[in-house]
Specification:
Mean pLDDT: 83
Distance between the termini: 9 Å
Strand content: 35-45%
Low-confidence stretches: 1-6, 24-58
Number of strands: 47
Largest sheet: 12 strands, parallel
Radius of gyration: 32 Å
Length: about 550
């Protein structure tokens, strides 16, 4: 039986079309699974966050929503353990865990909910609060290392690693606004050392302070903490620690030792405007002026600056302007049941304003240090800090460098018609003392080998941690390969600044069917489709050959 050229052509064309469709299907499968896209297992891109979670257009923060978790002094996902005379003013809860020990002798004034619907609902609200706090990004201020000795005003503060309050107390100043909200985002651990305190001033309230921590929180013996602690893992209050707030742990334990927790509340208070009005400045639109009121600074390119505060008496400083003298340059303003105002007159002066530059020596790169002069505190992690002052003598003090002594730690600088430089020499207070650097992994199966190399020294482990001891400084590290896993970060550096340091490492399992992370069934489907395409092409060639033979 003969086959016409036209009929054969149609059959060949049909086979080729089917083969092309099969090849197209292969391409679609590859694209749909993310094959070759550089993401293990063909992971797809994460969608945009809901609009409610994106940054707002203003810098002011609103309180973190706690829901039913707001009544709990201590709430854990696993266990609440107490030793000694712990005293909780508020509720006590655990879910989905069911272990509560040490009550009595520990006491609580509220209710105890253990592995019941009330505790489960409160833990869900802890997760909501954690996600709400961690997703904020508007006007974030970066902080790092030790923030002891600093004074902070309401806002959002972000640390990309661990955070400590060690070499001095931390002051949170509301600037006269009792409604000011402080939110701290800490990627790793939060620690306070023995006896340290978080001090609230100028209207700041513990109920408006929130600490969102990516791993664990440890409060040192007899330390005093303010604010709601929301940790992903555990919370530990060492002997005699006092918390004016809440201890809310998502997945870990809450461990207490003769500790005190008082659930923080927020009292409403009427606030009023304090308006500073300037006269005498030129080109203010391109050269802003500023005022510091009880630690809170505002600047303006108009003739007025407005603060919002409750009743009280507040210190203010009119910050220096190059080429001008302010009158008054500082003073107090009193708010009593209504708005207040203060006029400031700037006069151009031949004496002008001159740089006063503080330079540091002896600090490890990236160490935070502060200078307070003429009532204004400035902080940096670089080698210099600059003020501008008119002729006169000004007292200064140095603070904030954890693990170091400053020389001079305080003194007097005199400005006489020219710039002034003051050198601050820092020396380590720890001498040859070393501090622990702890690497903590997540994601590995129990018993899996992994290793860390720090400063050229490699330490293997089959547990969740690897611990080194290091002197002050910056040390490079790298993470060894573990079969079947990807690691992030695979390398980097850690800073030791007179205190312990920590680094979290995340391992992600690759699909066992392929070293590229593509699932086994996808490889099998890919092979079948390619085989089908080859069969189609061979069939077309066979038909052509038979036609030639006939």
């Amino acid at each position: 039986m003969s086959v016409t050229s036209a009929g054969l052509g149609r059959k060949v064309a049909s086979i080729l079309v089917v083969s092309a469709l099969l090849i197209a299907a292969v391409v679609l499968v590859i694209a749909g699974t993310g094959f070759g896209a550089g993401t293990p297992g063909g992971a797809r891109a994460t969608p945009l966050a809901p609009a409610a979670a994106r940054a707002s257009s203003t810098c002011g923060q609103v309180p973190v929503p706690l829901g039913s978790a707001s009544t709990y002094a201590a709430l854990s996902g696993t266990t609440v353990t107490s030793t000694g005379a712990t005293a909780l003013t508020g509720d006590l809860g655990v879910s989905p865990g069911s272990a509560v020990t040490g009550f009595p002798p520990g006491t609580y004034t509220g209710v105890k909910n253990v592995a019941n619907p009330a505790a489960a609902g409160a833990e869900l609200n802890v997760t909501t609060a954690y996600n709400n706090a961690s997703s904020r990004s508007n006007c974030a201020v970066t902080v790092a290392g030790n923030i002891g000795g600093q004074t902070l005003t309401p806002g959002l503060y972000k640390s990309t690693s661990s955070l400590a309050i060690s070499s001095g107390d931390l002051t949170l100043s509301g600037g006269g606004n009792p409604n000011g909200v402080f939110v701290f985002q800490v990627a790793s651990a939060l620690t306070t050392t023995s006896g340290r305190a978080v001090i609230l001033s100028n209207g700041a309230q513990a109920g408006n302070v929130f600490w969102q921590v990516g791993s664990s929180i440890t409060l040192g013996t007899t330390s005093k903490m303010s604010g709601t602690l929301i940790s992903y893992a555990s919370i530990t209050l060492l002997t005699g620690a006092h918390l004016d707030g809440r201890a809310l742990a998502r997945t870990g334990d809450v461990t207490l030792s003769a500790s005190t927790i008082v659930v923080a509340s927020v009292s409403s208070s009427t606030t009023y405007a304090v308006t500073f009005t300037e006269d005498g400045l030129t080109s203010v639109a391109s050269n802003p002026w500023s005022v510091t009121l009880d630690g809170a600074q505002q600047s303006s390119t108009s003739t007025s600056i407005v603060f919002t505060v409750a009743d009280g008496t507040y210190n203010y400083v009119v910050n220096s302007m190059a080429g001008y003298r302010a009158s008054p340059s500082s003073g107090t303003v009193t708010v009593s049941g209504g708005p207040a105002s203060q006029s400031v007159t700037f006069t151009a002066g031949s004496s002008g304003n001159y740089p006063v530059v503080f330079t540091s020596s002896g600090l490890v790169s990236g160490t935070s240090w502060s200078v307070t002069m003429n009532g204004v505190q400035k902080t940096t992690t670089t080698g210099t800090l600059q003020f501008r002052e008119s002729n006169g003598s000004y007292g200064f003090s140095i603070s904030g460098a954890s693990g170091y002594d400053a020389a001079p730690a305080a003194g007097l600088v005199s400005v006489v018609g020219s710039a002034v430089t003051q050198v601050i020499a820092f020396t380590s207070t720890s001498g040859a003392q070393a501090f622990t650097v702890t690497f903590t992994e997540t994601g590995l199966a129990p018993g899996t080998n992994w290793s860390v190399t720090l400063s050229g020294v490699m330490e293997p482990s089959v547990s969740g941690t690897v611990v080194f001891t290091e002197l002050n400084g910056t040390s490079a590290y790298s993470i060894g390969n573990s079969d079947g896993y990807t690691v992030s970060p695979a390398s980097g550096s850690v800073d030791v600044h007179g205190q312990v340091a920590a680094q979290s490492i995340t391992f992600t399992a690759m699909d066992k069917g392929s070293s590229t992370g593509v699932p086994t069934w996808e490889w099998e489907l890919l092979g079948l489709l390619i085989l089908a395409a080859i069969v189609g092409l061979l069939a077309a060639l066979l038909l052509v050959r038979r036609r030639k033979q006939t």
